[in-house]
Prior knowledge:
This protein is mainly beta.
Amino acid sequence: MKVIQLIGGVVILFxxxxxxxxxxxxxxxxxxxxxxxxxxxxxxxxxxLLLEIIELIDTRCPVGSVxxxxxxxxxxxxxxxxxxxxxxxxxxxxxQSASHTLDTIxxxxxxxxxxxxxxxxxxxxKAPQSYTVTVIVTQL
Length: 140
């Protein structure tokens, strides 16, 4: 009899937890709400938006070098949404204001907040697969 009561209790708990209306899904990787992305890897950043980095060109001035310009990282994104597939390009520079690293796509703002690793003098350029691009996506 106790076994039947235990099984009944487990079934009731399962039914209660299964009947919750909506669960809030957090797509962020980091405490600040940012998402770490890698080259050629699709990431869901909201309920109706997926991003994929399809191009990454790093022309930043390497640490240990003297350059006339700071350079930037050109990041091409493929955007998947309910409305279809599109592409956008965002330029990131550690010394620019946030308004230069922002784009508005499909009802969301996309802000690139960090690109690692940083290039060093006398080191070979890294392959796009070795980069991590940290973004913050906010639904408008």
